[in-house]
Design goal:
The structure holds 2 protein chains of 2 kinds.
Chain A lengths: L1 E8 L7 E5 L2 E2 L3 E2 L5 E7 L3 E8 L8 H11 L14 E10 L3 E8 L9 E4 L2 E12 L1 H32 L1
Parallel strand pairs in A: 1-8
Antiparallel strand pairs in A: 1-5, 2-3, 2-6, 4-5, 6-7, 7-10, 8-9
Chain B lengths: L15 H51 L4 H4 L3 H21 L1 H21 L6 H23 L1
Helix pairs in contact in B: 1-3, 1-4, 1-5, 4-5
Chain lengths: 168, 150
């Protein structure tokens, strides 16, 4: 069995990466230095490391949770904003393994271009893809939510104005 | 490894519902945090609004004395406008105080929920939010005690 220790550094609260090895999503724990660590064991001589970014508006039930949070937050007034830029990460590496491996993934600040992560500590990492890009589906959903919110607020405003005019 | 249409490998939410719920619960925690502060402000306004009526009366007297009565020449309806303003402030004050315990209990509930949700997040630590929510909780409880005692 080959031990793989993976460390994530350079993360902020917005990044929320999802790291998987050969299709298995890894669960990380935060250490005292504000980086995240995980240990993984495999029998393979080579692994495929995939890094993506969690986007709330890409989930299956995004519409349901958006409606619930809109209502609970009193028509969106007290609701935190969804990610406007919808920046996604597409990073894939082929890594050859020794018996003991320590891999560090350094995340760059979110941007619309450039490399998403820097991989260190691996034997001859083969970079398949490594970039930021704007997720068009998440972006469209964000715009749709914004339009719906504005329409609801206009409707509410008109209703309140009508009620005030009627009863005063 | 791109598919045949050369599209990138996208965020593939495995164990989707659990992760979605986790993400959604964090969003709810932030909403509850914001709402707890809002309802705390309503509670404090309810207590302070009793003072505002007095302040407005004092303001009217001070303006009248400071202008030696000439305010009634400049603005003949000054005192009637002030009294109507006091009436409105009184109505608002009555509404806030009559619903004080409702606002306070909602503020307490939301602050407790936001503390719990923030504490359960294993990915990020929300120290600031937990501290502020705790302060909101403490201030609300103190307000309730003051109102009951007063």
């Amino acid at each position: 069995m080959k031990d793989v220790k993976i460390k994530l550094v350079g993360l902020n609260k917005k990044t929320r990466p999802q790291v998987s090895i050969d299709g298995n999503i890894l669960q990380f724990k935060k250490n005292e230095f504000d980086s995240y660590e995980c240990q993984f064991q495999t029998e393979n001589n080579e692994i495929e490391l995939v890094v993506t970014r969690e986007l709330e508006l890409k989930y299956k039930f995004w519409w349901l949770f958006a409606v619930i949070s809109f209502i609970v937050s009193i028509f969106g007034i007290f609701e935190p904003f969804y990610d406007r830029k919808s920046i996604a990460i597409d990073a894939r590496f082929k890594v050859k393994l020794d018996s003991q491996n320590s891999i560090t993934l350094k995340f760059n600040p979110l941007s619309t271009q450039g490399k998403a992560v820097t991989l260190e500590g691996a034997n001859e990492p083969g970079e398949i893809e490594n970039r930021f890009y704007i997720d068009k589906i998440a972006k469209k959903r964000w715009i749709l939510l914004l339009i719906l919110k504005i329409m609801v607020w206009i409707g509410l405003g008109c209703s309140i104005a009508f009620l005030i005019a009627k009863y005063l | 490894m791109k598919d045949i249409e050369n599209k990138p490998v996208e965020f593939n939410p495995q164990n989707t519902f659990k992760r979605e719920l986790g993400c959604f619960s964090l969003r709810l925690g932030k909403i509850f945090f914001n709402l707890s502060i809002f309802f705390l402000v309503l509670c404090i306004c309810g207590i302070l609004s009793l003072i505002s009526t007095v302040i407005m009366i004092v303001f009217g007297i001070v303006v009248t004395l400071a202008t030696l009565g000439t305010v009634f020449v400049i603005m003949p309806n000054f005192w009637s406008n002030l009294i109507s303003g006091i009436n409105i402030a009184g109505n608002v004050s009555e509404f806030l105080m009559s619903n004080f315990y409702i606002f306070a209990s909602i503020a307490v509930a939301f602050s407790i929920l936001s503390i719990i949700i923030s504490a359960l997040d294993k990915q990020n630590k929300h120290k600031g939010k937990i501290v502020i929510a705790s302060i909101v909780l403490a201030v609300t409880i103190v307000s309730i005690i003051i109102t009951i005692a007063g």
